[in-house]
Amino acid sequence: MNAAPPLRCAALWAPAGPADDPEYRLTREQKHELANAMPGCPITFEHAGVTEALDKLGAAGKSPANKANVVMGLMGEAKTPGQGYKSPLGVVTDAWVTGTGRGECSMAITSAAAKTLVNKNLIRSVSLTHGETGTGILPVELALCNVPARPGAAIFHTGISPEELAMYKASAAPPPSSTMSQNTSTPTPAAAAPTTDAAGRNTIEAAWGALPTDARQCLADQLRKLVSASADQKARIAELEAANTSLQRVQSGDMDLLERQLQILTAQVDPALLHKMGLSDCARTMKDFKSDNSRLVADAALRTVICASRTLQMRPGSGAVPMEGVAEEQSKRQAMQGAAGGQPEPAAVGIEGLLQSAAPSSAQQQQPGETSEMKASQGALRDALNLAFA
């Protein structure tokens, strides 16, 4: 089975400007030094296992400068029962410093749980652990966390492709500094193509014309892909919205039918039984049926079926007795049949038995107030009982 692809993200690990906390502030040189050494750093959850792994590496005489040592140390910590969360969640794939002094990086998250947390925006901040060495500053790991040490340090792009990342880095990179001496005999390079129109305004056309041919081709290819992907996404969204509208229409019709049948049923039930079963308020019962909570739906269905069953058993002419007296009545019948030397008459069981016992016999007159609508409700009750006791 092929492994699931990693979730590729871009993150800000060292803010610049107002968000740059003085306590954790890094110089531009330190940011560049860290960025050069960050690829390969493990990604952890809230720095879990880092301290223990570094302690064991030090005791074994192994250097944390070797990223593989840190990764193996974390994996060793994760093998301890109950400590699986200390395992690396992914790895830093690249790091750079922007023209504005922001330290940024790209990462590949391989943990399924971490992917879910990031995609659902449940955890988006990052925190870089680094230490001083005799020769400079060394990155150790980048943690996914809820409260970063450097305010503003967070993932700002998820699902970024290598091509999109390359384009973003090119746009965020600082301009190259000139090291040419005034006295050098090196020819002055030709001026770049203008990026403004005749009126001095920046235009897309002028900027496009200033790009090299291969850069224009790369951008054009990416734009075509983005336009195509956007069109496919819009078509899929429209399809899902149409399906959702159709489903809501069907569900609305079903609920209207259920509410009408519930009204017919409750009109024929003893108010005391309705109160006991919690069905006095039809609107409240329908709210339970429409709930997203499956437990509330099942509870409403059970109360409704029980109420319908008791009502059918207690209909005049059914020969039924209250549920509390069923056992006593059965014993009396068996005693009378035994005294007469006959075999005990099997009790009517099952749904059809309940419905037959509730229906008036041919010798009985139709009960006052019984309508064709009430008879139709018995058919609906039969279906509901079949579903409930299947």
Secondary-structure class: alpha+beta
Q: Helix segment count?
A: 13
Task: Classify the beta-strand content into a percent band.
Answer: 5-15%
> Which value, in Å, is the CA radius of gyration?
37 Å
Q: What is the count of distinct domains?
A: 2
Q: What order do the helices and strands follow? A: EHEHHEEHEEEHHHHHHHHH
Termini separation: 40 Å
List the strand order in the largest sheet. Answer: 5-6-2-3-4-1-7
User: Architecture of the largest domain, CATH level 2?
Assistant: Alpha-Beta Barrel
Oligomer: single chain
Name the shape in a single word. elongated
CATH third-tier fold name of the largest domain: Serine Protease, Human Cytomegalovirus Protease, Chain A
Largest sheet, in brief, is: 7 strands, mixed
CATH hierarchy class name of the largest domain: Alpha Beta
The residue-averaged pLDDT reads: 77
Query: Low-confidence runs (pLDDT<50, min 5 residues)?
Result: 178-193, 344-349, 361-366
The total strand number stands at: 7
Helix proportion range: 40-55%
Could you outline the blueprint of secondary structure elements for this entry?
Blueprint: E1 7-14, H1 28-37, E2 42-45, H2 50-59, H3 67-78, E3 90-97, E4 103-109, H4 112-119, E5 125-132, E6 137-145, E7 154-158, H5 162-172, H6 204-210, H7 213-267, H8 271-277, H9 282-289, H10 294-313, H11 326-339, H12 350-358, H13 372-388
Parallel strand pairs: 2-6
Antiparallel strand pairs: 1-4, 1-7, 2-3, 3-4, 5-6
Helix pairs in contact: 2-3, 7-9, 9-10, 10-13
